[in-house]
Design a protein that fits this description.
The complex is a heterodimer of chains A (537) and B (130). By secondary structure, chain A is of the alpha+beta class. Chain A has 16 helices and 18 strands. In chain A, strands 4-3-8-7-6-5 form a six-stranded antiparallel sheet. Chain A is rod-shaped and about 170 Å long. The two termini of chain A are 65 Å apart. Helix content of chain B is 38%, strand content 18%. Chain B is globular. The mean pLDDT of chain B is 88.
Chain lengths: 537, 130
């Protein structure tokens, strides 16, 4: 609706129709004059009418009593007054009526009213035209101001808060195209807004998340399920791991379906590059050490294999035995390196377990097969007795392998000339799968038993005789604990030791997760961790 | 067994540790594969982009360009046209679990070299669907 019907010139509102331009005061003066003329005419007409009635009565009815004449004059005066006041009121109220109609016409509320037409009014037509035009123009000015304010509020490029926010703010439209980045984003990413805006968010930002709970999976979920949603991610990365220019941050997202301004997704980045990079470096020291150990180990194992395969048959029995021992030693070293690495991970809370449904008998057999050579070169046989009714267990195959391998490796080391080790597994009274590794060797003194799972703690009596780091049992306990099981030991000096640990049937683990309100089957060595959709049967 | 150059599967081994690549090449050639070795990331990536290989064994700690960069470039359609080779990461570098998961997602296999012998590598590749 355009109300601009007159021009704004030199601060005065003036009519544009007609040759001469008049000010509001001219119209007011004209109205006064018109009103005076109306009132004069009314009073004069009234008086003349009464005088006329009196004269007619005296000339044509000279004998008429004065009382009758007075009564006649009163009746005529009354009727005349009623008629004139009615006509006068209709005229005098015209400007107010017109203004009332004009106000209703522009009012955004109530019933729509047609605009008053000045030609419909005889009394005060000019001032009606002037006042209604002023009213329309004022409304138009207010509307323009509102439009300007609205634009300033919704256009983020002109929005003070968005631009001055000291955190990177990125806005995406419904196609996940970047439509806005603030100054903090451009500084943080080192890219101009023009290089980011208009590009697909995933291509332009290339973020890596810790698990499958990513920005795209959240947006996909939100678009299908909700009108608005919030989410937060930790340890998000832009750039390549281990490189100086990679950025590490927490990310917060707000989603608003079909946002009328096209601002469907808001992302705010909280920089933690320094802190998270320190975490990475702490691990990378161990990782580099492990890398340096593993390279010669790879070669050793490779060359041993070549020699064993190509020379083995031609060697004497003694040399063949040396070859086996060399191979077993290389495997043992490989296990030791893995232990160092896993302990470092536990210390840094970075050992993550992915618990899956596994056939427990199969897991045990794999470890026993792998340890066969190590036992064999010491003249030891590993015997297994596994109950047939075991349910599938919920374990991280790689970590639980470490537990069994460490317990068997210890049993081999401490067997002291005995020739058998037993691995037994059964369902215990509480419904958990209980597995024992039993040797008949040195045994452990009762005073030492309470500390046997401590880090770097070793059987002092045997330290001189048996090699080892004291990490194996510490690691085994941490891994069993993280699986939700327990590990215990029974031992008697010179009779041997039995280490027993439990793991949960997969069904129980699944149920526990649900009851805790966290259906995740991803854990770290210190308890439950972030959500993870690895809920598989 | 000597490789038949017309039918043998071609393997590119990007590995800077010469003794390891030598051991792998020996075992793989004996198993009937045709093996080329590249000792650095830049040359390895250029060779991989020719799409002349069925399998690429990619170490992560290699000179010039890291294995992760090579992997990303080979998996980026804007930088490398679609290639048919399977990419198997062969590394002794221990990664954070999230980083490893990210790499595993982009590759077709992930092997820790210290945990396998050359013969076990051959077994693994023989079972790979190419």
């Amino acid at each position: 609706m355009d109300y601009r019907r007159c021009k704004h010139k030199r601060g005065k509102l003036q009519l544009t129709n007609g040759k001469r331009t008049n000010t509001f005061m001219d119209f007011l003066s004209k109205l006064r004059h018109q009103a005076r003329s109306y009132l004069f005419l009314i009073v004069f007409t009234e008086n003349m009418l009464l005088v006329g009635v009196w004269l007619v009565a005296r000339i044509y009815h000279p004998g008429l009593p004065t009382l009758y004449i007075v009564i006649g004059l009163a009746v005529v005066g009354l009727l005349n007054s009623l008629l004139i006041s009615h006509i006068g009121e209709a005229h005098l109220m015209q400007p107010i009526t017109a203004l009332w109609k004009a106000i209703h016409h522009i009012s955004p509320h109530g019933t729509p009213e047609p605009a008053p037409s000045p030609t419909d009014y005889t009394f005060g037509r000019d001032i009606i035209t002037n006042l209604t035009n002023n009213l329309y123009q004022l409304t138009s000015v207010i509307q323009n101001v509102e439009k300007t304010n609205k634009k300033a509020t919704y256009d983020l490029r002109a929005n003070f808060v968005a631009n001055s926010l000291p955190l990177p703010l990125i806005v995406l439209d419904k196609d996940e195209t970047i439509v806005y980045t603030n100054d903090a984003t451009n500084k943080y990413l080192g890219e101009a807004a023009a290089d980011l805006i208009g590009k697909n968010a995933y291509t332009a930002l290339d973020m890596s998340f810790q698990n499958e709970d990513t920005l795209s999976s959240w947006l996909k979920r939100s678009k299908n399920q909700t009108a608005t949603a919030n989410h937060k991610w930790e340890h998000v990365r832009i750039g390549l791991p281990g490189q100086g220019d990679s950025l590490l941050f927490d990310l917060a997202g707000y989603y608003n379906k079909d946002n009328p301004l096209g601002y469907e997704t808001l992302l705010i980045l909280f920089d933690h590059t320094e802190v998270y990079a320190q975490d990475d470096q702490a691990m990378s020291f161990v990782a580099l050490g492990v890398h340096e150990l593993r390279t010669p180990l790879t070669l050793l194992r490779g060359y041993i294999e070549v020699f064993d395969e190509e020379l083995g048959p031609s060697l004497t029995g003694e040399l063949q035995e040396f070859m086996k021992k060399m191979n077993a030693s290389a495997q043992q070293l490989s296990g030791f390196v893995d232990n160092i690495l896993n302990v470092a991970k536990i210390e840094d809370n970075q050992l993550t377990l992915q618990l899956h449904k596994e056939d427990w008998e199969q897991v045990i057999k794999t470890v026993v097969d792998d340890l066969y050579l190590r036992a064999n070169v010491r003249g030891i046989t590993i015997k297994t007795d596994i109950a047939q009714d075991l349910p599938p267990v919920g374990v991280d195959r790689y970590s639980i392998y470490e537990v069994l391998a460490n317990l068997l490796d210890n049993a081999i080391k401490y067997s002291k000339g005995t020739s058998e080790i037993y691995v037994t597994s059964r369902l215990n009274k509480t419904g958990q799968v209980e597995t024992s590794v039993k040797d008949f060797g040195l045994g452990i003194d009762s005073s030492i038993l309470p500390h046997i799972f401590d880090k770097f703690y070793r059987n002092h009596r045997n330290r001189a005789q048996i090699g080892g780091t004291g990490l194996g049992l510490y690691l085994s306990k941490a891994i069993v604990d993280a699986h939700g099981g327990q590990i215990t030991v029974n031992s008697k000096v010179d009779e041997g030791s039995t280490f027993t640990f439990t793991v949960l049937p997969f069904s129980e683990l699944q149920q526990n997760g649900k009851e805790l309100g966290n259906p995740s089957l991803t854990r770290n060595a210190h308890g439950w961790i972030k959500n993870h959709s690895l809920y598989r049967d | 067994m000597q490789p038949n150059t017309t039918t043998a599967k071609r393997i590119l081994c990007i590995e800077d540790e010469h003794f390891i690549s030598e051991l792998y090449a020996r075992a793989l050639t004996k198993a009937g594969y045709q093996v080329d070795v590249q000792l650095d990331g830049q040359k390895g990536m250029a060779a991989a982009q020719t799409d002349a290989y069925d399998i690429i064994l990619l170490d992560l700690m290699i000179p010039n360009i890291t294995g992760i960069e090579v992997l990303r470039t080979l998996r980026n359609p804007a930088k490398t046209p679609k290639m048919h080779a399977k990419i198997i990461i062969t590394t002794n570098l221990e990664q954070r679990d999230d980083v490893r998961a990210d790499i595993e997602q982009q590759a077709d296999g992930y092997l820790v070299k210290a945990e396998i012998t050359p013969k076990e590598l051959v077994d693994f590749l023989n079972h790979l669907k190419i």
